[in-house]
Amino acid sequence: MRLFGVALWAALAEATRDEDGSFCCSALGVVGLHERLVYPGFETFSTSLNRYFSQGARLEPQCFLQPHNTAEVALAVKTLVKANQTVPCRFAVRSGGHTHFAGAAGISGGVTIDLSLMNDVVFHADNETVSAGSGATWLDVYAYIDKIGKMVVGGRSASVGLGGMILGGGNSYHAARKGMVCDNVANMEVVLADGTVVNANQNENQDLFQVLKGGSNNFGIVTRFDLEAFEGGNMFGGLVLYPEQTAEQQFQAIINFGDKIEEDPYGSAIVIGVYLPAVAPVPMFMNAYEYTSPVERPTVFEEFFSIPGNISDTTGIRNMTSLALELEEPKTHRVSFSTLTIKSDIRVLHKAHTAFKTVIERLSAQASGDWAILTLYQPLPALFAQYSSKKGGNILGLDRFDENLILYEPYLKWSSSEDDLLFESQAQWLRDEIETYAKQLGVDHEFVYLAYADKNQKPLESYGHENVAKMRKAAAKYDPEGVFQYMLPGGFKLSKVW
């Protein structure tokens, strides 16, 4: 079926020629999506704009499109590709909008496809899967499965969307037993560049299935994830606060934890350096411990719990909904985060902590308003990658390495746009300082975790030449015209690799 006659296209282009992007929005309305369009000046537009996690990520499109189902997403893609032959129709796609930098899940003057209304969660007993729309958050998923005693391998923070996290790989509390989040997806429903809807799994479109697991938004729009489910229930977890003077013990404990994870793969630990000046005028450690079985204070955390002087402790037997909400951050600040991967070397962790305190001093002297800084240290043991090949493989390239690693993430947030340059420059300095030191010691590592990466990092390149070649082959097959490279310009683009 032809979407438009030639005369109608010409008339529409003429009527909207002076309004950037309005032709593309109008084209969507003409094909029957007018009730799904949201324009500036309406409360629903502001509500959608405010769903971005970081205020700095909020780009104002010409319109938001809020589809209700996959067929509407497919129609939107077909329409935008057709309209692009008359007027450039750039678009963005947003699931949860948790990436902190502008342009990853939004666009200025174009069309932002907001998937937030595609958030249904359903359990299928016949094949033990949980189907969730790409616009669902992990809170949507956990609130549902906690009630029915099921569990999936998923995210750790409530408002993170499924789409961006799974397509970026995804770390979880279950990683030592189950692998990365993307490795525990049974099927993805995908809208391709020509509007075709396909399933990607181990039996259908297996090449697409593999590259979606870490390849981000380069191949299509995933509208539904079918997640492998298993018996769930409560687990042990929470946050423990320690004085800053325990740094030596914290870093030794997290390295030991990663090295011994195979002995008890139910455990997960994150060491977090925190400075929250609105709460306390001194840096501290706020560690997250989770054990995916309802065992009180399991011995896997013994070294951490033996560190003296803990200030507070929220750990206990809880459900995943409660744990995800505990890590939730309000969407009221501007945010910057990035990532480094290093080999497990305590010297680098101490260097990172020293740099953390240096940045605290600089920001305390110059920053205005409400602000905070955190530095996260997470084990990334070789064990995590061993599950991938059993489930169709992912594209992250971690299976190339047999060493235990540490994921480092500096995280800064602030309230005033006038401080953007200050905080962004300090975030960059922090990462550069640690990366340089790690290289001097020979313990740096090429892997860049896409879900934490900053806009100037290159996660796709870090997957290795073989995996980049696989992604290019899949992109040429499923998107030969480069719709998801050029019409959807945001995020980490395969077309910009090397």
Automatic annotation (TrEMBL):
Signal peptide: 1-15
Alphabetized Pfam families for the sequence: FAD_binding_4 (PF01565)
Keyword Signal appears in the UniProt entry: yes
Domain FAD-binding PCMH-type intervals: 57-232
Keywords in alphabetical order: FAD, Flavoprotein, Oxidoreductase, Signal
GO molecular function: FAD binding; oxidoreductase activity
Family note: Belongs to the oxygen-dependent FAD-linked oxidoreductase family.
Name by which UniProt lists this protein: FAD-binding PCMH-type domain-containing protein
Species name: Pseudocercospora musae
